[in-house]
Amino acid sequence: VSQHDTHMDKTVYISGKITGLDPKAAQKHFDKAYKKLAKEGYRVINPVNLTKSFPNGTHEEYLAICLFMMRFANVVYFLNNWQDSPGSKVEMEYARDNDKKILMERE
Prior knowledge:
48% of the residues lie in helices and 15% in strands. By secondary structure, it is of the alpha/beta class. Helix 4 runs parallel beside helix 5 (86-97).
């Protein structure tokens, strides 16, 4: 078993609504999930930070990058607002098509 395979067992991608929300509110929601998942021992991929490293990207560009990042996780954690996000709906389809373990925020 390679080191990459071992890491992937505990790597989670957070999916939820970002577009259309107040950026600080979205950041807070994703950061709360990040802290919870990191505390549980996961390596966490937090896409809300993408806008800091790639400002002014289009929704299509962000979604393409997010789908690429999802390849490195075997678990996807959906925030409770995911159904209000067209991008998260695509990520749910990707997660199901690629046999990712799906976790749902309960609050």
